[in-house]
Amino acid sequence: MHKQSIASLAQGLRQGDFSSEELTRHFLDRIHRYNGALNCFITVTEEVALADAREADRRLRAGEAHALTGIPLAHKDIFCTDGVRTSCASRMLDNFIAPYDATVIQSFKAAGAVMLGKANMDEFAMGSSNETSYYGPVGNPWDTARVPGGSSGGSAAAVAARLAPAATGTDTGGSIRQPAALCGLTGLKPTYGRVSRYGMIAFASSLDQGGPLALTAQDAALLMNVMAGFDEKDSTSIDQPVPDYCAALDQPLDGLRIGVPREFFGDGLDAAVGELVQAAIGQYQRMGAAIVEISLPNTRYSAPTYYVVAPAECSSNLSRFDGVRYGYRCEDPVDLMDLYKRSRGEGFGAEVKRRIMIGTYALSAGYYDAYYLKAQKLRQLISDDFKKAFVEVDVIMGPTTPTTAFAAGDKLNDPIQMYLSDIYTIAVNLAGLPAISIPCGFSAGLPVGLQIIGGYFKEAQLLHIAHRYQQETDWHARVPEAFET
Amino acid sequence: MSWETVIGLEIHVQLATKSKIFSAASTAYGAEPNTQACAIDLGMPGVLPVLNGEAVRMAVKFGLAVEARIAPRSVFARKNYFYPDLPKGYQISQYELPIVGLGHLDIHLDDGASRRIGITRAHLEEDAGKSLHEDFHGCSGIDLNRAGTPLLEIVSEPDLRSAREAVAYMKKIHALVRYLEICDGNMQEGSFRCDANVSVRPAGQTALGTRTELKNLNSFRFVERAINLEVERQIDVLEGGGSVVQETRLYDSARDETRSMRSKEEAFDYRYFPDPDLLPVILDEDYIEAVRETLPELPDARRERFMYEYGLSAYEADVLTASREMADYFEAAERASDGETRLTANWVMGDLMGALNKAGLDITESPVSAQMLGGMIRRIGDETISGKIAKQVFAAMWQGEGDADEIIEQKGLKQVTDSGAIEQIIDGILAANPQQLEQYRAGKEKLFGFFVGQVMKATQGKANPAQVNAILKQKLSSS
To answer: Taking phi first (over 0 means left), then psi (-120 to 50 degrees means alpha), and beta for anything else, what does residue B468 get?
Structure first.
């Protein structure tokens, strides 16, 4: 059962081949078997899962089922889940039981999906290797000595090892697409404002966006049908009709214009990764698409821009973790300042503290114009590059990451190297565009991701383009050997 | 050397919305601690603010009332600092782009002069909670009921030149926000608060002196007192050869002093930046015009109208339009009095205000309604009772004994206007006092008052005074 896509599991449930409870127990068993090796779950919500499954079976029998009813899912531990610990992989929230459901969680509950547990991640989503988690690093199912990527590393590893049919993630600078690429999955970062951020613990509010990690584009489309939509509780969510993301998956690609930015194939890109990505683009050409070389000259400023904007916002977003109302509080504070200093000093990990300090500095009097304001201007220039490109082309393709999964510990003490692993993904967040990463081959046994970037609200098109490729290839269907059975 | 005082005020007006500025929790005052704080007010992980449209409407109403420019685009920013009663570690406020731009307000001074005071800006923001330092055994309690209550911070230009002007301006703003029904004006509950920026400079100098900011001025009296104390202190410092330090000072009403809270060097760097959780507020002309149509008659316009429509003096118009409730009361009473405008003004400003002051009551708490007072004045006008008897009727109404007509009826206070009856009484009195009559006729005209008094005494004050005078005069001069 664990090798099937959601689309086929949903069919099995409907036909009565198995019940949701059986399906859920199957995945829970796998989690018990493999989580020790991977550490991809922070919390396994076995009781919740079985209760969800029984309710789903009732709905299935009653004919009230939605496409996702009875399908088990893992949720990144950044989404608040009522009555369940929501830790954001931080000591700060190790004791935090959320008092409400995030809108995304509510939507999945309403659809009848089953929650298997809360997936590991980089602390407060800050990291690209899942090594900053308070609960320890996550192994990549393709080679457990390597990182799964981050920050949605637990979600990606869980799906890649078939411990969950699909998972939710969040993407601030590549946190869905990069782990999807490194674990051989399909990961979609929707247009900013397409998926509600309510109840998704904020890292950088103007960049954060929730989305699915799945085995196939079709499965990602099924999840998007539930996740996407306007939410009056999120002022930045956009009130636009949500299409049926599954409706146009099979259309032909004729006339599709693909832009290939020369900036995405320069220094720093691993040669083998570059070749596989070019080969995938060649495949699209054979399928009827036209290839256009384009330029995104300002994307070279993406990393410096991102590493001002994101830390600035996080420095403010994380101020609420002060040891006063919830979360970690230091032992026996002598006064208020001591309470703040030690609660935050002991509650946050090194990377989180680094970013809070960078952000605090960037927003300080006298530096604001030189850093934050300048970064906002660059952000506009980066957006404009994309806007110009989308006059000529329908989508933009390139590598998701410069290399395949790197060894655990490799970049942990070199933040600049770590930050560069998101070099192709962060411009998309700065521009607020949607983008998907799909598997397009293997290099030395490790998956390689193709990134496809679309115009605003073109998620359906991205899923369609990805789906067509997956009809012609089987990279997405490969299972890491150690987790086959 | 003579010194000039320069004052600018920052007034925090709590907007009278039902729910908070960024959440659906109630803003009602006085609930049990933390019962009116939802996940958003508590700054729970993952929550997001959603702007209350009513707060925007109220801010625009104020802006229009002070003839300010309403920003077509305003932006919420985060003011970052740590404090236990500030749940998110930042306050959502407006910084570079406030909703209300440059406006002005005219204040009327006691000497009859009026001055135009500039209003720099007014911006929307959320209030913080409260820290409670008693009864927590070495800890502090936090009550977040007030967190997220909408505030409009109104910042004046440094146009005020004395504590009295500052108070006049503050009272004017206080009256205005109540006229506009955007604030209940309750200073005890903190709905209307004020900080003052105060500096002095040698008379004639144009450059501003170094200012201090006075906090905790929660009554008109404290504003005046604290500013005067601070001006004296600054002049003492300067005349002693020292210089004023830019700092924040707290007014302690119990000790009647201001003292330093923090200096400029210790001032926070608030790291303002636009709040990425909220979109800019975009207001078009149609919206602004729609709000303009809901504006009531404003205090200055009403004051003008009171002068030409009712023939009141500037002073009377000032007093009677000092609050919307007062002006409404006067107009209702005037209508009920059937055109006795002058008498109504005198009664409201005289006996009624006197009684209210004595009882420590507000006009809205008056036991004598405008209808009742007007009804009584109407009976003076139609000569049912005399002005003197009216005082008796008023006292009875105040005691809750009914309206004027009921009291006049019950107590038999109706004026005697029957000439025959009055003549009869006068005849009796003249007959009973031959000696005084003789003296009067011999030229001691002062005794006229004596006879009037005797008639009034005989009629328990109910005889119509004009008739008594006329008949008496006629009787004394004849025969």
So the answer is: alpha
Both B368 and B442 in one domain: the answer is: no
Contact call for A201 and B90, based on CB within 8 A: no
Predicted confidence (pLDDT) per residue in B342-357, tens digit: 999 999 999 999 999 9
3-state helix, strand, coil in chain B (%, to 5): 40, 20, 40
Q: Quick one: pLDDT at residue B265?
A: 66
Query: Do A308 and A372 form a contact (C-beta atoms < 8 A)?
Result: yes
Q: Quick one: closest CA in B to A360, which residue?
A: B271
- Asked if pLDDT for residue B479 goes beyond 70, the answer is no
Task: Give the orientation angle of helix B447-458 with respect to helix B465-477, to 10 degrees.
Answer: 130
CB contact under 8 A, B276 and A206: yes
At B308, the amino acid letter reads Y
A81 secondary structure, DSSP code? B
Closest CA to A481 of A7, A144, A28: A144
Which range (A321-335, B8-22, B119-133, B457-471) has the least confidence? Answer: B457-471
From chain A, the residues in CB contact with B90 under 8 A are: 316, 319
Looking at residue B473, which CATH number applies to its domain? Answer: 1.10.10.410
Residues constituting chain B: 479
**What residues of A are annotated to the active site?**
76, 151, 175
Asked if A223 and A315 sit in the same domain, the reply is no
A297: distance to nearest CA of chain B, Å? 26
| Residue partners of A442: CB distance under 8 A and separation at least 6 | A184, A276, A448, A475, A478
Sign, CA torsion A210/A214/A217/A218: negative
Give residue A134's domain range: 6-250+462-483
If we measure between CA atoms, which residue out of A196, A202, A205, A21 comes closest to residue A105?
A: A196
Q: Using an 8 Å Cβ cutoff, are A480 and A161 in contact?
A: yes
Which residue in A has a C-alpha nearest to residue B278's C-alpha? A235
Which residues of chain A are under the pLDDT cut of 70?
Answer: none
Residue B93 — left, alpha, or beta (φ > 0 → left; ψ -120 to 50 → alpha)? Answer: beta
Contact in structure between A155 and A180 (CB atoms under 8 Å)? no
Task: Note down the domain range covering B405.
Answer: 299-411
The tokens 């109706």 sit on which residue? B414
Q: Which amino acid is at B423?
A: E
Beta carbons of A157 and A148 less than 8 angstroms apart: yes
Record: contact B45-A93, CB cut-off 8 A: yes
Q: Which chain B residues touch A197 with a CB distance below 8 Å?
A: 48
CA distance A429 to A178: 13
CA dihedral B460, B465, B470, B473 (to 10 degrees): 60
pLDDT in tens, A215-256: 999 999 999 999 999 999 999 999 999 999 999 999 999 899
Number of domains in chain B: 3
Displacement of CA A131 from its chain's centroid (Å): 16
Q: Among residues A335, A350, A375, which one ends one of the domains?
A: A375
Helices in A326-458 by DSSP H: which ranges? 336-347, 350-363, 374-392, 415-420, 426-431
Question: Residues of A with CB below 8 A from B272's CB?
Answer: 363, 368
Contacts of B50 in chain A (CB under 8 A): 232-235
Complex prediction ipTM: 0.96
- The backbone torsions φ and ψ at residue A260, rounded to the nearest 5 degrees and listed phi first, read -120, 105
C-alpha–C-alpha distance, residues A133 and A89, integer Å: 5
| A235, two tokens | 């002022």
Q: How many domains does chain A have?
A: 2
Q: What is the rounded distance in angstroms from the CA atom of residue B88 to the CA atom of residue B91? A: 7
List B98's β-bridge partners, or say none: none
Residue B33 sits in the same domain as residue B139: yes
How far separated are the first and last CA of chain B, in Å rounded? 77
Instruction: State the number of CA atoms in the 13 A half-sphere of B252 facing the CB.
Output: 7
Token digits of residue B407: 């009291």
Q: Are residues B171 and B84 in the same domain?
A: yes
